[in-house]
Specification:
two-stranded antiparallel sheet, 45% helix, 18 helices, 8 strands, single chain, globular, transmembrane, transmembrane helix, mainly alpha, two-stranded antiparallel ribbon, oxidoreductase, Cytochrome Bc1 Complex, Chain D, domain 2
């Protein structure tokens, strides 16, 4: 009997040790699972903050599968598949490969990316944040088998190796010392603005080599026909008169009544990215942007959203007899009455709830650059946030309601800016044609042939001088 008790006593010790070991392992496994889950959530949040889906998802395509044509001054750049598919996506990328593409613009095969992929901003990503992003894309994003379509640019822009020189001149690949979740206040706002949301990629002007001008930080820039406006703290040229709450509201909804409505790329940024950020992050971002040093344009005498005011009009008959079959010239007022007044109203008031915005006190109408007004007419507006969709039909080549000519759009834009904005924009049909094509070509694109010819002649001249120098030296040596 004593031997039996001794056996069971020893068994209890073994059972206790085994159970304890099992509990420790279970706790460790649970902790590891929890850590991974937290990292995946963090990676998803960072991917939304970086707005990855906007560029890497084609219209009606699958998320992150690429195929979107991104307009650039050199031509269309096609985004790539960044789902974890091993054959056509980035499933075969190691974390180091992933980081190199994000921060240095170099693919796994060594090919250089164009800075349409904002690696110049992502270069500031902290290593811990890259790790969270990598886990998210590899474990949470659905793999999509979709072959990448090659980007075809004209010579010499099709030589990707040239990006090595461009990166040497303009890429600052110094990552942040602190990861996103351990930043707060203005530092967190700066990380959001400069790295994740890459605001300066659109809102900063470019030099003749198409790199951002640091001296013009957030001072506004043409962008594929649109114009990303000045968002510095300037009272008249920027958003210095906006409150922090108004900026946060704009980030969350894409609209601030009496000030601005998001369209084009900004509508995408609001829908896909900004509206998904926490209120605290939006406040940090707004607070940071509001303290960016002002860049002033001497031509701006008041904020662009403070032009014009509601007017009361009376329809009086002139008494003139007009034949019903007489063609009427479609001036700006007529184009507006036929295409715009049914929604925005004859006096530009918009709808009572401002779902259809008024045209007075409107930053697009009051801007010195009419690009965004023209692009809104050409492309319309479409954004969807929290199940609510904002839609304005386009009047461009693909319009389903009315395709307006360049002359009609110029007349309409001049009428709208003259009546509701800072004054007639004096646009011509040729200006609209240029905007349709993505805006004026940068200096480098316009004169690349001349620059190449000049460079070639300069190179031949240098070779000639070197040849003459050595030939002259040989003669002297022979004579001596």
């Amino acid at each position: 009997m004593a031997k039996t008790r001794s056996f069971f006593a020893r068994f209890r010790h073994i059972w206790a040790i085994t159970t304890g070991f099992g509990l420790v392992m279970s706790a460790a496994s649970y902790a590891a699972t929890t850590d991974t889950s937290d990292l995946l959530q963090k990676g998803e949040y960072l991917a939304k903050a970086a707005d990855c889906v906007a560029c890497h998802t084609a219209p009606n395509g699958k998320a992150f599968a690429g195929g979107l044509a991104i307009t650039s001054p050199m031509g269309d750049i096609l985004s790539t598949n960044i789902t974890p598919d091993n054959e056509t996506g980035i499933g075969h990328y190691s974390e180091d490969d992933f980081a190199r593409a994000l921060q240095r613009g170099i693919r796994k095969d060594g090919g250089h990316l164009y800075p349409a992929m904002p690696y110049t901003a992502y270069a500031g990503l902290n290593k811990a944040d890259i790790h969270a992003l990598y886990l998210y894309f590899m474990k949470s994003v659905t793999p999509v088998l979709q072959k990448n379509q090659p980007t075809k640019l004209d010579f010499p822009f099709n030589i990707r190796a040239l990006m090595m020189g461009w990166n040497f001149l303009f890429l600052n690949d110094k990552p942040a010392k602190t990861d996103f979740e351990h930043l707060s206040g203005l530092e967190r706002g700066r990380y959001l603005a400069d790295t994740l949301e890459h605001c300066s990629t659109c809102h900063s002007p470019r030099n003749f080599l198409m790199a951002e001008k640091k001296s013009g930080y957030l001072g506004g820039s043409p962008l594929g026909g649109w114009y990303a406006p000045n968002i510095t703290s300037s009272l008249n040229s920027g958003i210095g008169h906006w409150s922090e709450e108004e900026l946060v509201t704009y980030f969350k909804t894409g609209k601030v009544t009496g000030k601005a409505r998001a369209g084009g790329g900004m509508a995408e940024a609001v829908s896909n990215s900004l509206s998904h950020l926490s209120d605290q992050d939006l406040h940090d971002l707004a607070r940071y942007i509001k303290q960016v040093p002002a860049i002033n344009d001497r031509h701006d005498s008041r904020p662009r959203d403070q032009y014009s005011a509601p007017v009361v009009t009376t329809d009086l008959r002139s008494g003139e007899t007009i034949r019903v079959d007489r063609p009427i010239a479609m001036d700006g007022a007529a184009v507006y009455d036929n295409n715009c007044a049914s929604c925005h109203g004859g006096d530009g008031n918009g709808s009572p709830d401002q779902h259809i915005p008024s045209l007075y006190n409107n930053s697009v109408i009051g801007s010195a650059q009419a690009n965004n007004l023209v692009m809104t007419i050409l492309n319309g507006v479409q954004r969807k946030i929290d199940g609510q969709e904002v839609f304005m039909p386009s009047f461009g080549d693909k319009s389903l309601v009315q395709r307006l000519s360049d002359k009609d759009i110029a007349s309409l834009a001049n009428y709208v800016t003259g009546r509701f904005g800072r004054g007639d924009a004096h646009l011509k049909a040729a200006d609209i044609a240029t905007i349709r094509q993505g805006g004026a070509k940068p200096f480098l694109v316009r004169y690349i042939s001349v620059l190449m010819l000049t460079g070639g002649l300069g190179f031949l001249l240098v070779l000639s001088l070197i040849y003459r120098f050595f030939k002259k030296t040989d003669r002297k040596s022979a004579q001596s």
